Amino acid sequence: MPKPNINLDLTKFPKKSASAPIFRALFQKITIKYQNPTICFIDASKINNRSGLAFSIGASTCSYRHRNTTTNFMVELEAIFLCLEEIASGPNNQPTTYLTATDSLSALTALSSTHAHP
Questions:
Q1: Mapped to the 3 state alphabet, what secondary structure does 35-78 carry?
Q2: Is 0.85 surpassed by the pTM of this model?
Q3: Are 66 and 41 spatial neighbours (Cβ–Cβ below 8 Å)?
Q4: Burial level of 73, CB count in 10 A (0-12/13-18/19+)?
Q5: How far apart are CA 82 and CA 75, in angstroms?
Q6: Higher-scoring residue by pLDDT: 36, 79
Q7: What is the pLDDT of residues 56-84, one digit of tens each?
Q8: In Å, how far from its chain's centre is CA 111?
Q9: What is the dihedral of CA 72, 78, 83, 85, to 10 degrees?
Q10: Beta bridge partners of residue 54, listed in sequence order
Q11: Other CB atoms within 10 Å distance of the CB of residue 51
Q12: Domains along the chain?
């Protein structure tokens, strides 16, 4: 699998100072850079020591309950991994361009690091 192109343009605008319509317009501007991408949304959360994750690929959605002993960072990374694994295991006639979106800046930063990870 080729190294992903990680775009952090939306991080230039703090959530509290930019409205939802502004974020939607900026996201639309990013999607235009790609030719008809299949959009994938990825999210994970940990609330009251209960963890879960979900992702969508086009119109298909998957969600999983996660063990409670892990950190939210690890659940976010696993959500990204499972989404990419699902894309890679799909039929050969799938579109070749995918645009994945997550709200986990820490996970994206870790994935874009040039340093070796254990």
A1: CCCEEEEEEEEEECCEEEEEEEECCEEEEEEECCCCCHHHHHHH
A2: no
A3: no
A4: middle
A5: 10
A6: 79
A7: 999 999 999 887 778 889 999 999 999 99
A8: 11
A9: 180
A10: 43, 63
A11: 20
A12: 38-103 (3.30.420.10)
Res 76: pLDDT: 92
- Give the pLDDT confidence score for residue 114 in this predicted structure: 61
* Strand pairing report for 38-47 and 60-66: unpaired
Q: What confidence tens digit (pLDDT) does each residue in 94-109 have?
A: 657 888 999 888 898 8
Residues pairing with 102 in the sheet: 42
In contact, 114 and 56? CB cutoff 8 Å: no
Is residue 113 classed as helix, strand or coil in its secondary structure?
coil
Query: Can you tell me the mean pLDDT for 82-95?
Result: 80
Mean model confidence pLDDT for the chain: 84
Q: Other CB atoms closer than 10 Å to residue 79's CB: what's the count?
A: 25
Q: How far is CA 8 from the centre of its chain?
A: 12
